[in-house]
Amino acid sequence: MVRLCGAYLALFAFSITVLLGLSAGNPIEVILPRAIWALVLFCAIGLSAGWVGSRILDEHALRRSREMFTEVDESEAQHEPQAPGKDTGAAKTLVGQKRAEVRAGAGAAAPAGATSSARAPATAGGGPR
Question: Hey, which end of the chain has fewer CB within 10 Å, N or C?
Fold first, then answer.
């Protein structure tokens, strides 16, 4: 996005400078250096504007993702089922521990002798022969 903004703005400035110079009747020796200066100047302006726009979009996306995931966590905490006659404090602790395990990767080490059913990723050469 950054380079596109710089390129678009530079091309726009170059073409406008050439068209206005030709319409004013200026010789090409005057028009071309002015157009090149406009190209360089507006490329720098476009690059900086594109960078600012990119940062704004990145920060907005990050904020929205944080809002969405905190809403999910809060809604799960509010809508946990309560068993009648049971202590809800122990149930909440157990649910919190399970969530922490899932977030941490929950599959610590496999028991001794256990084999993995996951296949190894394919190699560029097609694997062992």
Answer: C
